Amino acid sequence: MKFVIITGMSGAGKTLALRSFEDMGYFCIDNLPPKLIPKFAEICKETDGEIEKVAIVVDIRGGKFFSGISKVLEDTKLNPTIVYLEATDDVLIRRFKETRRTHPLAPGGGRPIEGIAKEREQLALLREAANHIVDTSEFTGHQLSKAIKEKFQKGYPSFTVNVMSFGFRYGIPHDADLVFDVRFLPNPHYIQDLQPKTGDDKEVQQYVMKHKVAQDFLKKLEDMVNFLLPLYKDEGKAQVMIAIGCTGGKHRSVTLANILAEKFEENENVNLLHRDVTKGREKVER
To answer: Could you give a GO molecular-function term held by this entry (predicted)?
Structure first.
């Protein structure tokens, strides 16, 4: 089992780092008392492989419980990977001012710089034991997430392209990032032999794609997605939802979604969903 302990300075981005591990499929817990970590590890092992990756944030918020971290590090059976996040004093002070929060070691309105100094002292041994030290002083949230995923993902898809077909009569998907309307394409519904079939059938695909307007649209759509994907990745998105709709979500949208997904599945992690393909078969498409 992979066991990651995220620790470091308050304000250095531990919560953002934890979310990044969650995106990579880790079971995540924030601010778990160190003494409970070995017991939690035992519980995870009892899941018969259901939980294989765990990330836990441990820091000075644990107060008197934080001292238990030393025993956890001595536990050779656990063998955790320690990720230590830090930043310069100036950056940490600025972040505390921006969030209007007090430092955990400077309660009652104490100066953040005093709490930061105490924290560095208390975390010195933990920093020395860390496997990875990440200075987040110059990172945005998206950059920190990207750095964590690049270091730990090891084959886990850091970005997912979701392609969905849908019918406008059933509403636009609420989680769509990009919505494309293909109701301008010739409709197979009015071809007697094709009406009962769907865009999963070769005959429907051939009918839709034999028209030049469909071919031109697909080429432009592919070019646009190729342009946007690197930008979404750099911006820190974990996934994008591309929704393609026709009237009933049965013929044209299904055809285009199938072809688009196939074009990107070689280089991207792709999920394909036909939301409405089985709905309203008794109704007439327009």
So the answer is: GTP binding
Binding-site positions for GTP: 59-62
Of 167, 152, 138, the residue nearest 22 (C-alpha): 152
How long is the chain?
286
**DSSP per-residue string spanning 107-136:** TTT--HHHHHHHHHHHTHHHHHH-SEEEE-
CA-based end-to-end distance of the chain? 55
Asked whether the beta carbons of 230 and 223 are under 8 A apart, the reply is no
Residue ranges at the known binding site for ATP: 8-15
Residues 6+ apart with CB under 8 A from 182: 217, 244, 245, 246, 252, 253, 256
pLDDT tens-place string over residues 40-61: 888 888 887 788 899 999 888 7
For residue 180, pLDDT over 70 is answered with yes
Around 231, how many Cα atoms within 13 Å sit in the side-chain half-sphere?
5
- Superfamily covering domain 2-152: P-loop containing nucleotide triphosphate hydrolases (3.40.50.300)
Q: Which residues are annotated as a binding site?
A: 8-15, 59-62
The encoded tokens of residue 50 equal 């259901």
Decide: residue 264, CB within 10 A, 0-12 exposed, 13-18 middle, 19+ buried: middle
- Beta partners for residue 30, in sequence order: 57
Please state the domain extents for the chain: 2-152, 160-274
Instruction: Identify the pLDDT of residue 284.
Output: 42
Strand order through the sheet with 53-57: 27-30, 53-57, 2-8, 81-86, 132-135
Q: Tokens for 268?
A: 């991207």
Distance CA(148)–CA(81), nearest Å, equals 13
Range 220-247 average pLDDT: 91
